[in-house]
Amino acid sequence: MIVMGAPVFFLRNGRRCRSTHLISTIPGKPGRVELLAFAKHLGLRQEWLQRIGSEFEHFDVMGGKRIAAAKSFGAKEVDRHRLVEIVRMKREAKTGEKRRRAYAYARAVQRNAERLSA
How far apart are CA 89 and CA 92, in angstroms? Predict the structure, then answer.
């Protein structure tokens, strides 16, 4: 399934513009194939794909007309929290493990303390 984050507004050359990320919920190469096929249908170039090979490979979709076209072609709009959940799910499928920020932070603090005491 192709999803896109809620559009955000920013200034581009002094004009207000909307932008969002377009990603696939399927991890790995099948997700990239699905995303590229959808992007081609939407009129996006393949070389515009960002973060290739990572769990957050995506297209930036800019402009109200293109965002509306993505919705009409079947992209589901999700909030940023759901978008982060999808990226985490893809990371877990790729690596086989959950990323735990608290644990990683505690290990970094411990390593830093060991380095200072040595």
Answer: 5
